[in-house]
Amino acid sequence: MIRFEKATKRYGQRSVVDAVSMEIPAGRLCVLLGESGSGKSTLMRMVNRLVIPDAGRVLLDGRDTASIPPEPLRHGIGYVIQSVGLFPHWTVARNIATVPTLLGWDAARIAARVDTLLDLMGLPPDQFRGRYPHELSGGQAQRIGLARALAADPPVLLMDEPFSALDPGIRRGLQRALRDLHAGSGKTILFVTHDVEEALLLADDLAVMQDGRLIAHGRPAEVLRRDAEPAIRRLFGEATLAFHRLGTLPAASVAIGADKLAIGADESPGGIADTPLLHADANCKQALMLMLDQGTDRVALPDGAVVRLPDVMAASGAASDAAFRTAPRASPGVAPEAASGTAP
Ligand SMILES: Nc1ncnc2c1ncn2[C@@H]1O[C@H](COP(=O)(O)OP(=O)(O)OP(=O)(O)O)[C@@H](O)[C@H]1O
Ligand SMILES: [Mg+2]
Fold first, then answer.
1. Which ligand 1 atom is the nearest neighbour of the CA of 12?
2. If you count Cβ atoms within 10 Å of the first and of the last residue's Cβ in the chain, which end, N or C, has fewer?
3. Residue 211's pLDDT is what?
4. DSSP count for the chain of H helices, then E strands
5. What is the pTM assigned to this prediction?
6. For the CA of 35, the nearest atom of ligand 1
7. Nearest alpha-carbon partner for 254 in 211, 219, 298, 295
8. Which residues, listed in sequence order, are joined to residue 299 by a DSSP beta bridge?
9. Domains in the chain, please, with CATH?
10. 115 CA to middle of ligand 2, Å?
11. Nearest 5°: CA angle at 64, between 61 and 65?
């Protein structure tokens, strides 16, 4: 568990982190969002004591980090940064093995761990373990940085825009890998990103910073609620807020059971045999995207329940969203009658 208690950092007269209090429970993945310069990296670096708070404190599993010497503290915290910071005169394998070596692992265990992590990163060990950082592309170096942070399997990960230099395919692969790793390991993760899609894909919780202050913290659906304050609306995009909100809502929550559907008077016969299939934990945004892709107004869940377009529209709350109420023209996709639940 990571707990910030009125954590404050000042440079000159300016508080770049201003009395931030929040708790990231053990096993939770918290995504930190905010405009450039809002204090995200500074807040994160307080956890591993790369930044010392001027006031307030940071607790790790109930212990004030100020009371833990930096070395043992950092051995238990994986830290990934955008600029990677690999040691230039060390091979990839030696870079990845930094913490295991410090912890005194034997050579065979280290070598096996290096290869496992290179595989996880999609970098063939035979080709990569002997290379030097200058022989890597930016995206490859970023993945080595991530492998290094994971090497000793630390219970806490601090990830500061770790995927920013990666192309979309590799980025999606690593996002999935991180989600699986998190689900399977119970690690506590603080993750900074500028990418709203990435944030919503990964976050158990969202924390939003503005000018050094924490202006929102909670479950994504709560942070993206309809009456969210202007700074948050801007960050997620006024026009796309309702769409992002759909991403926080399980498709199953608006689905209609196959039994009810069969007896519904407005349902066409023929069952759901040809209805495109979502995966069981899909959200409403994915349901809508699948409908758009397949040119259909309904998709099915593996249990046979059906998600219908009008129900997704109603769930988005689009028609009552201030952004759309004040728009000069209603866009066809969010016409009030569709959003109020009438079938198109
Ligand atoms: N060592 C320093 N000395 C003076 N000012 C600093 C120092 N480090 C950071 N700052 C200032 O503190 C503010 C917050 O910086 P920080 O790096 O935490 O922002 P950020 O939210 O991570 O931004 P970005 O999204 O661009 O990475 C910025 O205005 C920055 O210029
Ligand atoms: Mg930063």
1. 4
2. C
3. 94
4. 17, 12
5. 0.82
6. 25
7. 298
8. 307
9. 2-236 (3.40.50.300), 246-339 (no CATH)
10. 30
11. 90
- Whole-angstrom distance, CA of residue 241 vs CA of residue 233: 7
Mutate to test the pocket of ligand 1, among 8, 38, 54, 192 (most ligand atoms within 8 A of CB): 38
What separation in Å is there between the alpha carbon of 160 and the centre of ligand 2?
7
Distance from the alpha carbon of residue 157 to the mean position of ligand 1, in angstroms: 20
Ligand nearest to the CA of 37: 1
How many C-beta neighbours within 10 Å does residue 115 have? 17
Give the tens place of pLDDT for each residue, 168-181.
888 888 888 888 88
Judged against a pLDDT cut of 60, whether residue 336 lies above it is answered with no
> Of the ligands numbered here, which is closest to the C-alpha atom of 81?
2
* Ligand 1, CB cutoff 6 Å, lining residues: 11, 16, 34, 36-42
Q: What is the pLDDT of residues 232-253, one digit of tens each?
A: 888 888 888 888 888 888 899 8
